[in-house]
UniProtKB/TrEMBL annotation:
Classification via HAMAP family: ATP_synth_b_bprime (MF_01398)
Function: Component of the F(0) channel, it forms part of the peripheral stalk, linking F(1) to F(0). F(1)F(0) ATP synthase produces ATP from ADP in the presence of a proton or sodium gradient. F-type ATPases consist of two structural domains, F(1) containing the extramembraneous catalytic core and F(0) containing the membrane proton channel, linked together by a central stalk and a peripheral stalk. During catalysis, ATP synthesis in the catalytic domain of F(1) is coupled via a rotary mechanism of the central stalk subunits to proton translocation.
UniProt xrefs under Pfam families: ATP-synt_B
Subcellular location: Cell membrane
Record text on subunit structure and interactions: F-type ATPases have 2 components, F(1) - the catalytic core - and F(0) - the membrane proton channel. F(1) has five subunits: alpha(3), beta(3), gamma(1), delta(1), epsilon(1). F(0) has three main subunits: a(1), b(2) and c(10-14). The alpha and beta chains form an alternating ring which encloses part of the gamma chain. F(1) is attached to F(0) by a central stalk formed by the gamma and epsilon chains, while a peripheral stalk is formed by the delta and b chains.
Name of the protein this chain belongs to: ATP synthase subunit b
Swiss-Prot/TrEMBL keywords: ATP synthesis, Cell membrane, CF(0), Coiled coil, Hydrogen ion transport, Ion transport, Membrane, Transmembrane, Transmembrane helix, Transport
Protein's membrane topology: Single-pass membrane protein
UniProt signal peptide: none
Matches recorded under PANTHER family: ATP SYNTHASE SUBUNIT B, ATP SYNTHASE SUBUNIT B', CHLOROPLASTIC
Family of the protein in this entry: Belongs to the ATPase B chain family.
C-alpha cells in the first residue's frame, strides 16, 4: 500500500465522494455562478450602452452649445458694428449741428459788428460835425447856426474821403 498501490476501498469511497461533490457543484453551484456571471455581463453591457448613449447625447448638446455660442458671438459682433456705425452717425450729426451753430453765431456776430460799425460811424460823424462846427465858429469868431449847411459840407467831405479810400484799397 503505497502511493502506487492504493487501498481499493478507500479509492472507491474517495471516487464516490468526489462524484457526489462534483455532481452537487455541477447541479447547484455552477448554474448559480453562470447566472450571476450572465447578470454581471448584462449589467456591464447595459452600462456601456447607457454610457455610449449619454456620451452621444453630451456630444450632441456640446455641438448645439457651440453652434449657439458661435451664433451669439456673431450677433454680438453685428451689434457692436451697428453701435459703432450709429455712434459715427451721431458724431457726424453732432459735428454738423455744431458747425451750423458756429456758422450761425459767426453770421450773427458779423451782422452785429456791421450794425455796430454803422452806428459808431454815424455817431462819430455827428460828433465830428459838432466839433467841426464849433471849431469853425471859433475860427470865424462867431457861432455857426446853419446846421443843415454844415451837415452838407461834412457829408461831402466824408464822401470824398471814402472815395479816396476805395480807390487806394
Amino acid at each position: 500500500m503505497g502511493p502506487l498501490k492504493p487501498n481499493l476501498i478507500e479509492l472507491i469511497v474517495g471516487l464516490i465522494a468526489f462524484s457526489v461533490v462534483f455532481a452537487t457543484l455541477a447541479k447547484v453551484l455552477l448554474p448559480r455562478i453562470n447566472r450571476t456571471l450572465a447578470e454581471r455581463e448584462e449589467a456591464t453591457a447595459g452600462a456601456l450602452e447607457r454610457a455610449e448613449v449619454v456620451q452621444r447625447e453630451a456630444q450632441r448638446l456640446r455641438t448645439e452649445y457651440q453652434a449657439e455660442l458661435s451664433a451669439a458671438r456673431h450677433e454680438a459682433a453685428q451689434i457692436r458694428q451697428a453701435a459703432h456705425e450709429e455712434g459715427l452717425t451721431l458724431l457726424a450729426a453732432v459735428r454738423s449741428e455744431g458747425q451750423k451753430a458756429r456758422e450761425d453765431m459767426v453770421a450773427a456776430a458779423t451782422v452785429q459788428l456791421e450794425a455796430d460799425r454803422v452806428i459808431a460811424e454815424a455817431e462819430l460823424r455827428e460828433h465830428v460835425l459838432g466839433l467841426a462846427t464849433e471849431l469853425a465858429g471859433r475860427i470865424i469868431g462867431e457861432p455857426l447856426t446853419d446846421v443843415d449847411r454844415a451837415r452838407a459840407v461834412a457829408d461831402e467831405f466824408f464822401a470824398e474821403t471814402e472815395a479816396e479810400a476805395d480807390t487806394k484799397g
